[in-house]
Amino acid sequence: MSGGKKEKDPAWKYGTKVDVSNAGKTYVYLMCKFCSKTITRGVRRMKDHLAGTHENVKPCEKVPPKVKQETEDYLKQFQKKKKKGKLPPQREKEHRNQVCLDIGRFFFENGLSFNAARSPSFHNMLRSVGSYGRGLKSPSIYELRMWILQQEVKTTDEMIEEVKKTWQKTGVTIMSDGWTDIKGRTILNFLVNNPESIIFLRSVDVSDAIKDHMLFNLLDKVVEEVGEEHKAETKLMETRKGLYWTPSAAHCLDLMLEKIDTFPQHVSALHKAKRVAKFIYNHGWVTALRRKFSRRELICPTATRFATAYLSLQSILQSKKALERMFASRRWGNSLWGNKPEGKAMKKIVMKDNNFWSSLVYALKTTKPLVSVLRRVDSEKEPAMGFLYDMSQYKEIWDIINEKWDNKLHKDLHAARYYLNPQFHYEDNFSNSSDIKLGLFKCMDTLIRDPDEKERAHLELDEFTNAK
Question: Using an 8 Å Cβ cutoff, are 179 and 189 in contact?
């Protein structure tokens, strides 16, 4: 870039070049003059950083409004120049269609998910190719597996380090989940979450021994690596006095449903509902006929198996009239399936088996509150910890629920979040029980070590409580 253009380009005006050599290649690294963050991989990312476009780089929090506006205007002007067509509109449309066909062919031949077209890196790639213009030599297999991969690993490591710098300020939650791979190995994943981002820490093969003491040792090592002062089974909390351990609420609720699933009326409803749904979906002609009477799907997949089962029961109940019309229709009666024993059995369940529908209603009534809570806590849209105690008021006091609630879900952290949730705290029916207050005070004792901070927290708590 010429000296004159550099003077006008915000990336060069407000960034200081840092030379970094890697694998024989030298890349443009710019340090932001306002926040001192080093921006890798080109001047365009520096402009995105200053303008706050959120395109593959964190916005600068210290950029002056005038500089931000200047950078936004520069990017808009740049886009206008690019859009000045060198081809007539018709030729431009034909040219774009050909480019899109080539991109589509690449997706199809390599079995790529169409969702990849929504990826920010996909759009960044197209933007970079367009900016380069004609004559771009595509990267070779050797380049992709060597310096390009190495540079991307380095960039990822730098992004992780930037996130880690925020841990001290926000605190973190250490999360783990288990799964079984295609070879039958039991794998535990460890992740660290805070408002900035979720970072994958590591996976551990625990196929040989997945005992309490082993899990404790694994978690203890993770806590040691992350730092106890950063994070948010009893044995771990005894060793690490400054953290709270709480099980997955979704998993605990799923365990409740699993146990309730053994009740006779639930077994009957689930068994017959599965037979009807399986019969319909296993035969294309029957599926097509049912959709003439209702477009509602009978199976409702969710993140957990037992929630899926009960949501599917709900869908089947809502489709009752449509199913009855289908089995009573002339097309069904004259069809091959309508005269087969299996088809007649399905018609009998839907049209004449009153026990099926009554057991289905019973199963849904007794699990609706649990499924509702499970869907909330398993949602990624909002944190559910502060809602658990309020939701528990709606559940019937079943022995199964009490067992799981008392042994697993009843945690001081949940009580504290409920108490401090403004949505519930200022309601007339807010539960101000001793258990909840005790949980709150235990949390404060555990997480606030400094006596002055603890005194200040109690004063702020009084203000919060009396804010009505």
Answer: yes
